[in-house]
Design a protein that fits this description.
Largest sheet: 2 strands, antiparallel
Number of helices: 19
Oligomer: single chain
Number of domains: 3
Distance between the termini: 23 Å
Order of helices and strands: HHHHHHHHHHHHHEEHHHHHH
Strand content: under 5%
């Protein structure tokens, strides 16, 4: 069985005052710590990954790649300012030709809403590395920024509570009316929708996306197409926009930001549209997130994965969608799916105590979700692939 020891005391290390000539010492070198950091990163156990990468820096503090790996992991954990400080330190003091740092500084600035800085560092990356591995992505993201600048001022303040509520009420009334297409085609109203789409609450953004999906006109499709190509929108909302766009143009091909790059996606290969999102389905996610927020071991990526698992389950089970009898049992079942997928160390019994439900109910919900999504099989395949890739790299 594949086992790993603690990060601060790898399995196989035995403390002794004398060294026998028959004992082959276990050498903890930089390669070992980087490999272990990469492994735990792939499992989304980011706290352990950080420990290993920091240890690699302690051993080789002058190696810029060690600092680069740490900065990339900090970016993944949403510690964007810290990551950018390290990226800048690398190009200023360690390796001025590690141009990828400029690209990731730009991405992090964009995530923090600093689009002028994002543009600056993307241009800097392209200046130094016009044929680099990320050059196409940098150009696509610059184009996306320019397109958005034509329509909306990202530096403007977010909508306040009253503005959100007013626009939500208007959208609700429009959904009952038969003149949505005409209003959306009007520039003033379209600009109001775009501001809400990028600066409103998540609830407002989702309502706008669904309104655009119901409005079969060119202006609505253009808004949805711009949204799915934007690098700085939440992934769940991007998925909603993709599904709404497929309702209008099921055979279309659109540019979508995915896995750090803008790619062309043919919508007929995309999963079938989800049903109208129900309040109780969102409540399951909210309940799961509320419990996860009480734990220090979950980073932003875990929340995204939990949300993706639930959205995928709803899509796969439709139209045989689940009845939400007791909210806490489904939330606990969803969190246990996340735990199993990432090999995290929490049991059904521990979750049952936290959520105030029975272990049997968690087991039933997990079994039902796993039956459709095959979470155990996917997690096992991911682990085997990771181990095989590492073995190939060593030879």
């Amino acid at each position: 069985m594949f086992k790993l020891g603690r990060a601060d005391r790898p399995k196989g290390i035995i403390k002794t005052s004398k060294c026998s000539s028959k004992v082959i010492p276990f050498v903890q070198d930089v390669l070992y710590y980087n490999q272990m950091g990469t492994y735990y990163n792939s499992k989304n156990n980011l706290s352990k990954a950080l420990l290993f990468l920091q240890k690699a820096i302690e051993i080789e503090p002058e190696n810029p790649i060690n600092h680069y790996n740490l900065a990339c992991l900090l970016s993944k954990t949403s510690r964007l300012k810290e990551a950018n400080q390290i990226f800048k330190h690398i190009v200023q003091n360690m390796d001025s030709k590690l141009y990828e740092c400029y690209f990731f500084i730009a991405i992090n600035n964009g995530l923090m809403g600093e689009l002028d800085q994002a543009r600056h560092f993307l241009l800097k990356y392209l200046h130094f590395s016009p044929e680099g591995d990320m050059a196409d992505e940098a150009e696509d993201i610059l184009l996306a920024i320019e397109e958005e600048d034509e329509e909306i001022d990202f530096a403007d303040r977010s909508l306040d509570t009253l503005e959100n509520e007013a626009l939500l009420n208007l959208i609700e009334e429009m959904s009952k009316a038969g003149f949505k297409e005409r209003l959306i085609a009007e520039e003033e109203f379209r600009n109001a929708l775009r501001r809400g789409l990028y600066q409103g609450s998540d609830l407002l953004k989702e309502a706008i996306l669904k309104l655009l999906g119901e409005s079969h006109c060119k202006a609505a499709r253009e808004n949805l197409a711009d949204f799915i190509a934007n690098p700085w929108v939440k992934e769940r909302l991007r998925q909603v926009a993709l599904l709404e766009l497929k309702k209008q143009d099921p055979t279309g091909c659109y540019r979508v930001f995915a896995e750090g790059a803008i790619r062309a996606v043919e919508l007929h290969h995309y999963p079938n549209p989800a049903p109208v999102w129900k309040t109780e389905w969102q409540q399951v996610i909210d309940c799961t997130f509320a419990n996860m927020s009480r734990s220090a071991c979950y980073s932003d990526e875990f929340y995204e994965d939990a949300e993706a698992i639930w959205l995928d389950y709803i899509n796969q089970s439709y139209p045989e969608v689940p009845r939400i009898n007791k909210l806490q049992t489904w939330a606990a079942g969803l969190e246990y799916c996340l735990i199993r997928f990432h090999f995290l160390g929490m049991t059904q019994k521990e979750l049952a105590e936290i959520y105030g439900v029975s272990t049997a109910s968690i087991r039933r919900k997990y079994t039902e979700i796993n039956r459709l999504l095959q979470i155990d099989q996917k997690a096992y395949r991911n682990m085997l692939t990771f181990i095989a890739d590492n073995e190939e790299e060593q030879f």
